[in-house]
Amino acid sequence: MTALLEVCVADAYSLEAAIEGGADRIELCSALELGGLTPSSGLMRLAAQAPIPVYAMVRPRAGDFVFSVREGELMLADIEAVGGAGLAGVVLGASLPDGRLDEALLARLRGQARELGSTLHRAFDLVPDRHAALETAIALGFERILTSGGALTASAGLGELVRLHRAAGGRIGIMPGSGLTPANIAALLAALPVVEVHSSCSAAGEPWSADAIRLGFAVGGRRQTQVEMVRAFRAAISSV
Questions:
Q1: How does DSSP assign 175-240, residue by residue?
Q2: In the chain, N or C: fewer CB atoms in 10 Å?
Q3: What's residue 110's pLDDT?
């Protein structure tokens, strides 16, 4: 079976490119350069018109995933907004100070999501015991875990991804992500028989204006999902 391709996007251009290129599902966020934050209500409404499922990131700020009570309340409200916009699901994660999953907060967030689909994001890669966290994610009812196997990239974490996939035993999806490209996805899938993979399928876009960078409105270069990259990724997946 050909693996499903989830493409993470953070703007309208990338959303359109992902759909045109043949993505099977969208992870919608803002500030992809920060690992992804909750998207705007306008972008969610636009994405709700997509012909494929869209899951929205629910993350109120950059940094770690140790959230305060107030931040937890913001996340509950954002989940309500995701459902109100008509999207298919949410992407969640929360940690305790020692890196373990914040099971209490995640249970509240999952309860708020109700009938929405749910992905546990790479807060999972920070846990001290990934196999214990796997069981927690299963107990909480997540559909899948987005993970690099605790490494910087999914290719580097392949051994751990294989172990997690075996331990999951079909009870939850293991979706590799981070650093995956059309050039390396076939090798990963040859060793790891997962049913879905995650990538931004992005390349450098038009540079930000010098004045925007000078005044602190932009940092670094712009990256956007490219139609050709999505198509190449799909072709690489189909070749496995």
A1: EEBSS--TTTHHHHHHH---SEEEE--EEE-SPPPHHHHHTTS--S--EEE-HHHHHHHHHHHHT-
A2: N
A3: 97
